[in-house]
Design goal:
heterodimer; A: alpha+beta; 6-stranded mixed β-sheet; 14 helices; globular; disordered N terminus; disordered C terminus; B: 72% helix
């Protein structure tokens, strides 16, 4: 017998079943927000009809300004106007390289980058959160209410620290994040669903500051990423910089002050963009230091940017190799990112793959569109969601061993989620703690890889050297984010882990930033936390009821009784004002339904394969 | 807990042997992921999503092992309680090792001279050797001589490492 579920009118989560889900492309140069409306993914424009938000944040005298208004003041107030902040996400001061390229006042120190602005010291996470907040406000105005879930895109080649920084920024911006999605994969979703494509595709994504190449197989509604590669510090910005250097050299002017440099950089970008439709473009800038007047021809531009274009082709070859494919195996090449408008880039890609690239989708919008489609699916809006995405981790994850070498635990291009474990032992008698260093990268030496975090395992029972068996488990979730757990196997003691992210913010710092952003509205914050807990409660009650209705036979009467009681507890605390009590009952219900969830997953596996055998017969 | 007692082959409904039907593996893999992937349980409770994460990671691990011939061979030995990956005793035949050493030296010379064509031809020979050895592995793996199977699988793993090194050399030549 089928049981139909009917919720009480007052309890139904929302009268209209459709939830407000958005996809966000948080770009180096521009950002966008899109949503699925009546079955079609659309970019949400501002009141003036402009789809893009320049990724520029200005800390002005009277508050924070984001987008076109901030961009307009970039040359006049360069120290307080942050552009291309994405290049600094999850990075340290050592990584930004030539800091004369930046007009900011960096705060000296290890770990995350900190910039002194008029409004105080800010991290890239906080600056990016301002951009995300502006997009959230735009979406809420357009959708008529708070956002239920967001998918935010990241370059496929972003490492763990850069991904975590992006997720932290979304949290600070008050966005309920459903998933971090790789940008080329987002583009493939938009492209594949739009064209009902089957086959093997390469997505070449050259953005403002990052380059990604992903090789995907599209087959019967499954988007399977076979390999990804790239350079998270290579993009259109670098082409602008080449033009900037060339123009400066032509002018014979000495090195420029911050405001002049910003101005000439803007002129350089305009000239580069003009070359897409013209054979030559003037670079004219009237600066405090003097006048720059030069003519940039297509031939000169090709010459000065040749090495940059070549720099994108090496990752393409590596990705093909990891996918065990050759260029002729590729059925189509999709171009993504504003920088792929450059004819030089199109030619190089066409030459390597032996076919003209596909450009029938707007390269600026395709990533946000794909993210919106994924958000719509993950939030539970059931519209043509019969497709699945299988993505990979871009860089190997490992641990430092004796002699500064890396032991790889999760190899690059492993399909996520991944769970891998490795056993370690103690070096000295009676050793009760162990220091582990987690790194990401392809090189053999620790010093050539990115440092992600340092862990200390404490509470190992004292034993003779080599007797302890400490199992360190690496788990990479569907966002591509790593978590680590440790356990002493012989005694079953769970060692506690102290995490020190190398280029990230600690949980305590995030909590402080969050509380600061709510400092003026603490009542709001409490009301919001209670509302969020109720949404959680509704979701788990609905999910548990559905699970019991479908697979209740998997529980013994005693087990069933425990779940029923926990369910009743959540319902009883749902409408009270005690958020802590509600969170507690939700946590207990989650704990007592763990076994049911696992048994249902097993049944799902068995059913899926039975279905396959039936297919094979028919 | 998810039922981890089934081996990777059983998980996909395939016979536990070296020769594998690639299309059937891919089809079973996708079918299972459609059922267990976290995206299919995004609206579930925390417990549902945790179970999905575990199950999906398990299916990925099984797929990764079975689709790669060397990993698949090592796994089959593991199922017969033989560890082919133990680094303590490396008993590869001298003749085999000498041949690989000479191959490495030839590759180093080609790489130093930027000779991409020579590197490509060394890689072609290696591919041919690998194909022959894979056939040999297939024959011994399903037989009774576990020791012989382990030795052949070790040689196969060795060749796969040489192939990785050759790829890296080829990249370095192409990129300079």
């Amino acid at each position: 017998m089928t049981l139909f579920q009917i919720s009480e009118p007052a309890e139904s989560p929302r009268p209209h079943a459709t939830k407000r889900a958005v996809g966000i492309d948080l770009g180096t140069t521009n950002s966008l927000v899109a949503t699925v409306r009546n079955g079609f993914a659309v970019v949400l424009p501002d009141v003036e009809g402009r789809p893009l938000v320049p990724s520029v944040v200005r800390y002005a005298e009277n508050g924070v300004v984001v987008g076109y208004d901030a961009l307009a003041r970039a040359s006049a107030d360069p120290g307080n106007t942050i552009v291309s902040v994405k290049r600094m996400m999850g990075r340290g001061l050592d990584d930004v390289g030539d800091d004369r390229r930046y007009p900011y006042r960096f705060v000296e120190g290890a770990g995350v980058i900190r910039i002194a602005t008029r409004a105080g010291v800010r991290t890239p996470v906080e600056i990016s959160a301002e951009i995300l907040r502006a997009l959230r406000v735009r979406a809420e105005a357009s959708l008529g209410g708070s956002v239920d879930g967001a998918v935010v895109t990241v370059p496929a080649y972003f490492d763990d620290a850069q991904r975590q920084a992006t997720k932290d920024a979304a949290t600070l911006a008050g966005l309920p994040i459903l998933r971090l999605l790789n940008e080329p994969t987002a583009a493939a979703i938009a492209y594949g669903l739009d064209n009902a494509s089957e086959g093997t595709y390469a997505v070449y994504d050259l953005g403002g500051g990052t380059f990604d190449i992903s090789i995907l197989r599209l087959s019967r509604g499954v988007f399977e990423v076979l390999a990804t590669n790239g350079d998270s510090a290579l993009g259109g910005d670098d082409f602008d910089h080449r033009v900037f250097c060339w123009a400066l050299q032509e002018s014979g002017l000495p090195p420029l002050a911050a405001a002049d440099a910003r101005e000439l950089m803007t002129r350089a970008r305009h000239a580069k963009e003009m070359l897409t439709g013209h054979e030559a473009a003037p670079v004219v800038a009237r600066l405090a230091a003097g006048t720059v007047e030069a003519e940039l021809t297509s031939a000169i531009f090709t010459e000065i940017t040749r090495t940059l274009v070549a720099k994108t082709l090496a990752p393409v070859r590596r990705a093909l190799r990891d996918a065990k494919l050759e260029p002729p195996d590729i059925d189509g090449v999709v171009l993504v990112g504003g920088a792929t408008r450059m004819p030089q880039v199109r030619c190089a890609v066409a030459e390597l793959f032996g076919q003209p690239p596909l450009t029938n989708l707007n390269p600026d919008e395709v990533v946000a569109i794909g993210a919106a489609i994924q958000a719509n699916k993950l939030v539970g809006n059931r519209e043509g969601d019969d497709w699945l995405l299988l993505d990979v981790i871009p860089l190997s994850l490992g641990i430092e061993t004796m002699g500064g070498l890396v032991e790889k635990i999760v190899p690059r291009n492993s399909t996520i989620p991944v769970a891998r474990a490795q056993e370690f032992t103690t070096f000295k008698d009676g050793q009760t703690a162990m220091a582990l260093h987690v790194v990401q990268g392809e090189r053999e030496k620790v010093s050539d890889c990115r440092s992600l975090a340092r862990f200390e395992l404490r509470g190992i029972p004292p034993m003779v050297a080599g007797a302890a068996r400490i199992r360190v488990a690496f788990d990479v979730d569907a966002d591509g984010l790593l978590s680590v757990a440790a356990r002493e196997e012989a005694t079953g003691v769970e060692a506690s882990i102290v995490v020190k992210p190398s280029y990230g913010l600690t949980d305590a710092e995030i909590a402080r930033m969050l509380s600061e952003s709510f400092a003026h509205a603490s009542e709001d914050a409490q009301a919001r936390a209670l509302a969020e807990a109720r949404v959680d409660a509704d979701r788990i009650v609905a999910a548990t009821a559905a699970a019991l209705a479908q697979d209740g036979d998997l529980l013994t009467p005693d087990e069933r009784d425990v779940v029923d009681r926990a369910l009743a507890d959540v319902r009883a605390t749902r409408d009270g004002d005690d958020r802590a009590a509600l969170s507690k009952t939700i946590a207990s219900l989650n704990a007592v339904t763990g076994e049911l969830a696992a048994r249902r997953m097993d049944r799902g596996v068995a059913r899926a394969l039975t279905g396959r055998r039936v297919d094979a017969l028919g | 807990m998810i039922d981890f007692s089934r081996n990777h082959f059983e998980l996909f409904g395939l016979p536990s042997r070296f020769r594998i039907d690639d299309a059937a593996l891919e089809h079973a893999y996708r079918t299972l992921q459609r059922s267990v992937h976290p995206d299919a349980h995004a609206a579930g409770s925390d417990a549902d999503r945790r179970a999905a994460l575990q199950a999906s990671a398990r299916v990925n691990e099984a797929h990764r092992t079975l689709r790669d011939p060397v990993a698949r061979a090592e796994y089959l030995l593991e199922l017969r309680a033989v560890d082919a990956t133990a680094q303590t005793d490396t008993r590869l035949p001298l003749e085999f090792l000498t041949a690989q050493l000479e191959r490495r030296e030839a590759a180093d010379v080609a790489a130093a001279g930027g000779d991409a064509a020579a590197l490509a031809s060394i890689a072609d020979e290696l591919r041919a050797d690998t194909a022959r050895l894979t056939t040999a592995v297939e024959q011994v793996l399903d037989g009774d001589d576990v020791g012989a199977a382990r030795d052949r699988v070790r040689e196969l793993r060795f060749l796969s490492k040489v192939a990785d090194d050759l790829d890296a050399m080829r990249d370095a030549v192409l990129e300079r």
